[in-house]
Fold this sequence. Notes:
Layout: E1 13-15, E2 18-22, H1 26-43, H2 50-55, E3 67-73, E4 83-91, H3 92-98, E5 107-108, H4 110-115, E6 119-127, H5 134-151, E7 155-163, H6 171-181, E8 190-191, H7 209-214, H8 218-225, E9 229-230, E10 235-237, E11 242-250, H9 252-263
Parallel strand pairs: 6-7
Antiparallel strand pairs: 1-2, 2-3, 3-4, 4-6, 5-8, 7-11, 9-11, 10-11
Helix pairs in contact: 5-9
Amino acid sequence: MMIMDKDAGFEEQRTGALGVRLAVSEAEIDAAQALRYDVFYREMGAHPDAATLTSQRDRDVFDTVADHLLVVDHNRGEGAAGVVGTYRLIRRSAADRLGRFYSADEYDIAPVIKAAPRLMELGRSCVHLDYRNRAVMQLLWRGIAAYVFRHDIDLMFGCASLPGTDPDALSVELTYLKAHHLAPPEIRPVALASRYVEMLRQDPATLDTRRALASLPPLIKGYLRLGGFVGDGAVIDAQFNTTDVAIVVKTDLITEKYSKHYERGNYPPPF
Length: 271
């Protein structure tokens, strides 16, 4: 596992009893994988294979090269006992060790890879049911901002999920995303031909855009607030019981906010 040294320049950021930092032990990564299992499989209805069911952990080979961002509630306990939120971060140098990014299983990401030398793939985001509130989401975004700033990331991308595997039931959300937030060609992922699902499922002119935006999962809305884009084509992920869209976010806005607040001594920025 890639485990960040506590003294490597990424200090824990606190809001009361809650803190955000990178995992620093195998036990903390295991706790993140256990949380992912609870959320993805027990709560959201993903379908585990035999190994996943036996281990009660959501894990794959990408965990071995990733950094794992954690939200920890110190009132629950220190270290692994306090993990209540997580995000998986994979930089280009880490993906190179495996020869691929996770998103490449669903999308042609060649334009993204070509567009920026310093890339980061975001994924496996989840929060414990009891902690899905503004404070925890802000901490996760603050952690991402600090990580982006520290590693001078130019572009971040990944797959974000809508619940369920019926694209027609997600007609409003998918149509809205493609009609209003499609990435420019030079940074646009395209769903693999064998998995491509058309996102324009109704006439965009029939949409109530405010309601469509409000119906999106909070994570996708967060990306859009940062000026994020979506790729072309949705992908059905039968294992995780989701419909995925590719997300691309230029980090200019993140680093600009971070820099201004850091210079004023207000660490970290208020996302």
